[in-house]
């Protein structure tokens, strides 16, 4: 009898799930459920070229015909799944009850908003295509002053877009430096210099106490008493896993859906992308528990692995990866592979190529015990993948330094500006 694979979440991980099983020749029925009206689309451009390009680009991956006809998918868009019944093997989508034999959960994240800004014009988050459309329009209404709350990767990209449009831009970060939790303090400081180089004002160690304005944002009041006037306020304060609909389903939901190494959260129920919290076997010597990543590459890979494991329960395979992400600020490409922190171990960081004192180009490596665990590169595009391979082999710190030495004597290693 033909089986049915249901994929909940019509974005990157969900689409890759469908593509993987169809690519393998799996002939069962496939239902793809997405809460948004849009066809699956690519999110990284939404904080980059989608906003800055003169012509508005189309970020969708495939047109409808290619999904429904070529991939043979029953596409259910515009309605969120609201309940999962593990015993009955059903998912509730609006009025419809969808039966599954195999299930992939890939509902991603939603953007956190700033408290007290509901209904206030001029305040934005950037998670969805609709968010980006609205912001794209607002950025072009005159020459608005732009304030970004949160100096993470997406907040920093949005600041770069503002400067590319020649706007007055301020970034407000409550931590003592940008990105310290993600890449460590010294490297966070190095990247802050990129903002300074391009004329973005960065205020650290302060938070927004109050957003001022009646119907439209006018200013923000900071914890040190300063008021920053603004026409556009972007909340770049992170994202949370979209798992509310799974509460009470019997799955373990704890900052994501907790899964095993094969991404299984229950028999024949696998998770992928931003909602997946799973033990990454590659780092079991330096991390005590499971990890949850919010990176494009992981979501794509997990989508494929989750679906393959869900439809072929006798052949499941674990998913392991060296996390990888990139971010584009101004004219620079920032890349990170691996992890930057370890449980119960001190992490050392060393710049092995270039110079970080002026924001790059440079490459830095991260060490825990005798192992290389991470690599950060600014405008040295070929470097990170070489270290990523080493990290996947659990290479020693000395092996990484030897590679760095070999790379620095190789004339082909040139910073790419
Ligand atoms: C603006 C932006 C820029 C980014 N830039 C980069 C980058 O430069 N590099 C990088 O590595 N990563 C980047 N990322 C991260 C990357 O895009 C995400 O990790 C990736 O999109 C996660 O894919 P996903 O399929 O797990 O989740 P999502 O892309 O969040 O998709 C989940 C989908 O599920 C839907 N959904 C939610 N709840 C339900 C429900 N109950 N029923 C049905 N559907 C539901 C949502 O509407 C959404 O369409 C960026 C993300 C954003 C938002």
Explain the overall architecture.
24% of the residues lie in helices and 28% in strands. The chain is α/β, with parallel strands linked by helices. The chain folds into 3 domains: 183 residues, FAD/NAD(P)-binding domain, CATH 3.50.50.60; 125 residues, FAD/NAD(P)-binding domain, CATH 3.50.50.60; 79 residues, Enolase-like, domain 1 (2-Layer Sandwich). Strands 3-2-1-7-20-19 form a 6-stranded mixed β-sheet. A 5-stranded parallel β-sheet has the order 9-16-10-11-12, with helices on one face. It has a 5-stranded antiparallel β-sheet with strand order 22-23-26-25-24, sandwiched between helices. Strand 5 and strand 6 form a beta hairpin. 45% of the residues are buried. The mean pLDDT is 95. The structure holds flavin-adenine dinucleotide. The site of flavin-adenine dinucleotide has 36 residues, from helix 1, strand 2, helix 8 and strand 22.
């Amino acid at each position: 009898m033909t089986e049915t694979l249901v994929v909940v979440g019509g974005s990157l991980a969900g689409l890759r799930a469908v593509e993987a099983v169809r690519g393998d020749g799996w002939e069962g029925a496939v239902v793809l459920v997405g809460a948004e009206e849009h066809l699956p689309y690519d999110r990284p451009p939404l904080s980059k070229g989608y906003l800055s390009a003169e012509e508005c680009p189309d970020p969708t991956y495939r047109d409808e015909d290619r999904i429904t006809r070529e991939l043979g998918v029953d596409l259910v868009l515009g309605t969120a799944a609201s309940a999962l019944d593990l015993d009955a093997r059903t998912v509730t989508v609006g009025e419809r009850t969808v039966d599954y034999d195999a299930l992939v959960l890939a509902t991603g994240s939603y953007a956190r908003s700033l408290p007290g800004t509901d209904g206030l014009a001029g305040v934005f988050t950037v998670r969805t295509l609709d968010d980006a459309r609205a912001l794209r329009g607002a950025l072009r209404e005159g020459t608005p002053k732009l304030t970004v709350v949160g100096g993470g990767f997406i907040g920093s990209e949005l600041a770069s877009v503002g400067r590319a449009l020649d706007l007055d831009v301020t970034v407000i970060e409550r931590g003592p430096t940008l990105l310290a939790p993600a890449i460590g303090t010294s490297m966070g400081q190095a990247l802050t210099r990129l903002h300074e180089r391009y004329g973005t004002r960065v205020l650290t160690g302060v938070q927004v106490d109050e957003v001022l304005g009646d119907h439209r944002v006018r200013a923000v009041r900071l914890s040190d008493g300063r008021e920053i006037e603004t026409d556009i306020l972007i909340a770049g304060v992170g994202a949370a896993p979209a798992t509310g609909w799974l509460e009470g389903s019997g799955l373990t939901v704890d900052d994501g859906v907790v899964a095993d190494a094969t991404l299984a959260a229950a028999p024949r129920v696998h998770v992928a992308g931003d909602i997946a919290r799973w033990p990454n076997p590659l780092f079991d010597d330096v991390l005590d528990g499971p990890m949850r990543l919010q990176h494009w590459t992981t979501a794509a890979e997990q989508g494929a692995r989750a679906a393959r494991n869900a439809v072929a329960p006798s052949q499941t395979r674990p998913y392991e990866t060296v996390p990888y992400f990139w971010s584009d600020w101004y004219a620079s490409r920032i890349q990170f592979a691996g992890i930057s922190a370890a449980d119960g171990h001190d992490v050392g960081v060393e710049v092995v190529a270039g110079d970080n004192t002026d924001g790059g180009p440079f490459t830095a490596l991260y060490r825990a015990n005798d192992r290389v665990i991470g690599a950060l590169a600014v405008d040295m595009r070929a470097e990170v993948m070489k270290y990523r391979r080493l990290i996947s082999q659990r290479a020693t710190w000395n092996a990484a330094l030897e590679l760095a030495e070999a790379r620095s004597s190789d004339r082909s290693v040139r910073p790419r500006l």
